[in-house]
Write a structure and sequence with these properties.
With 294 residues, this protein is α/β, with parallel strands linked by helices. It is built from 14 helices and 5 strands.
């Protein structure tokens, strides 16, 4: 940055500089920070500190995002172009389906703020991330397992079924699949289950955002259909308000009858521990070597 251009920047008001280099986060021209440091005005020196703090946050976020790509980078370097991340939402609720998502991100993709959906607490931020993921992804899809399937094959295997449907819905066959914590029966591609994968893999984190936002919207729609249960607020989880509504208003068709609190309200005994025959038909409980985790 030349002396003339530096002086031109410093002729701008501090408010204009703050808007451009802090609020809008434009790249800072060389020499500007040093010029602000030398400016006798306290506001100028404070602005220099704020810009440096913003730059440090950006560097930290860049490092975090690079770390999130380490599993994908390894696979891309091995020649796997389409790496899908898979995750689910809605295993613990008493009502509604379990929803899974799959996402194939472009190579070396970065999305500021992308993280495990459980760490992104602001609903509007999750929605904004979901919009960006759907816009940028090479492919994405969601899959559901409905309440009847949850009750028939149990919630664990229903979650796997939703994951498989998400992968099958991508519209392309992934070269490799990264899954949060588990492996998917009859997955159409090699796969790896990663413990806490939604916090360690960008592709899985993206899938977790898509699954969470999809299910939250669905529970909002069910809330409009079944008012008075608070479904839009608790999303079907066993909160005190939800348990009280169950006891006072009764069980809905969308409640999972294999879950203890629902069975208690219905006066049913505990479900049998053995694996239902339908579950055995859907899932190979002793995976063949071809399906084992690499």
């Amino acid at each position: 940055m030349s002396i003339d251009s530096r002086e031109q920047w410093l002729e701008c008001s501090l408010g204009e500089l703050t808007e451009r280099f802090v609020t809008q986060a434009h790249a800072v021209p060389s020499g500007l920070l040093e010029a602000l440091d030398a400016d006798p005005r306290r506001g100028a020196q404070s602005l220099a500190r704020r810009i440096r703090a913003r730059q440090e946050r950006n560097r930290s976020e860049g490092q975090r995002l690079r770390h999130l790509l380490r599993f994908e980078m390894e696979l891309w370097e091995q020649g796997h172009t389409h790496v899908a991340g898979v995750d689910e939402a809605g295993m613990a609720p008493l009502a509604g389906p379990v929803v899974a998502a799959a996402a194939v991100l472009p190579k070396s993709y970065r999305l500021k703020g992308l993280d495990d959906s459980k760490k992104v607490l602001d609903a509007e931020k999750r929605e904004a991330l979901a919009v960006a993921i759907k816009r940028d992804a090479v492919a994405w899809a969601v899959g559901h397992a409905e309440v009847e399937e949850i009750d028939r094959i149990n919630i664990y295997h229903a979650g796997l079924l939703a994951m498989r449907r998400a992968v099958e819905g991508l519209g392309l066959k992934p070269d490799y699949v990264l899954v949060d914590a588990r492996t998917i029966p009859e997955c159409p591609a090699p796969q790896r289950g990663i413990i806490k994968g939604d916090s360690l893999s960008m592709s899985i984190a993206a899938a977790s955002i898509l699954a969470k936002t999809t299910r939250d919207r669905l529970m909002g729609e069910l809330d409009a259909r079944y008012p008075g249960y608070g479904l839009a607020q608790h999303k079907g989880y066993p909160t005190p308000h939800h348990i009280q509504a169950l006891r006072e208003k009764g069980v809905l068709p969308i409640h999972r009858r294999s879950f203890g609190p629902v069975r208690e309200v219905l006066g049913l005994v505990a479900p049998p521990a053995e694996v239902p025959s339908a579950q055995a038909e859907l899932f190979d409980l002793a995976p063949s070597p071809a399906r084992r985790r690499p």
